Records
---
Amino acid sequence: MPDQKKQRLAWAITGSGHYLRESLAVLQTLENVDIFLSKAAAEIIKQYGFQAQLDVTGHKVYQDKTASSVPVELFYAGKYHTLVIAPATSNTIAKMAYGFSDSLVTNLYAQAGKTRVPSIIFACDTVPEVGENSIESEAPRDNFVKVCPRKIDLENVEKLASFEHTKIAESFSCLCEAVSMRLADVHSRVG
């Protein structure tokens, strides 16, 4: 049985700029976190000029550099109490919704589920705010673009929401609340 006092938070980032700056800011406030970057996330972080923001978190960073996603074995060892995937691209959401585990992030999600570790996912393509038909997303060089989620993207998020041990955060504020509540729950059990 894993030592719950030593368990950590696993936070995976995919290749989207949507709330990436904010996700990195939240990571700076957390302790006992390991960060996992998809290949696209590693590129996007540099493209957006966020490498220093990632580095200042002080967390251990794993990158998608092996065909077999070697870091997933940490879930088998009971190292993590929670997996957060934020931001999660529509590509990653689609793969997870249909059971693919062909990258570091999708493999982390599959292994978290198989080891009964709860996952909190913030999808880039979510339902826009009431009265809106698009969401504003950060692009490189301090630009913002309007993005209209496709029907298939929204359906994949809905499908993923039905998976056991999975919570979908429908907004960034919902993500922050879900992470905060989960950490409070974990700390109360090991306190």
---
Amino acid sequence: MEKYDFKLEFKVRDYECDLQGVVNNSVYQNYLEHTRHEFMQSIGLDFSDLFRRGIVAVVARINLAYKQPLVSGDSFESRLKVKHEGIKYIFYQDIYRLPDEKLCLKGEVITTTLINGKLAVSDEIVHAIKKLKR
């Protein structure tokens, strides 16, 4: 089993499903973003606070592979591991249906930061990630 840095449970709501009765593809990005935000808070970082101080975290690229659909009422876990590489913070994010552990989505979200409007590495974010990895 893969080692993850963070896990968050969800339950699919009716309005997240499309006419086919499965979670709409765009909703998965909401799940992943919410997981990243909760993860950041869990390691002592708050997006609003960072923004107020001129540190803007932005998504640069997303690659998603849909494996198995989720349907209304399904419980699932969004799992994340993070790696810092140069100016990038790479989030490997997977979604597993519960309780059968069926892989529903594999994702890679590449983010970066702008500090006072310029592309730069946030020492604060890097330090929090390194502390997590110890």
---
Amino acid sequence: MNQDNDTYRRYAQARAKKSPVVRDCARAFVSGGAICAAGHGLRALYTCLGLGADDAGMLTSATLILVAVILTGIGVFDRIARFTGAGTLVPITGFANAVASSAIDSRTEGYVPGVGAKIFTVAGPVLVWGIFAGGVWGVVYFVLKELIL
């Protein structure tokens, strides 16, 4: 069977399952909004318990991370993510899931060669490029600020 690229593309498109984009976007919007609303509720709760704004914010972040890691560890986060799609990738919960998943997947190799070496397999590039971009934009901001003033 010798087909050119265009023929194969038409063949594959005709048999490909159509993606329910509107439904997927709605699920992501609702689930991501629910996670953010839960975070806002936690922060309000911690503030009502007497914590300052900064402490309440830090405890809210820690709580969301802890919940995401626990749900990842017991296998629930993946089922939720499969249903809600990108909505669970709200940065703090998605990042926690990425780190926890890497640790869980490599735990059979031992703590140092497995978990220690591979825990940031997925999250590592995010950290590296995030820090790099922050540094570059910091230099750009500094230079522009010095030139303008």
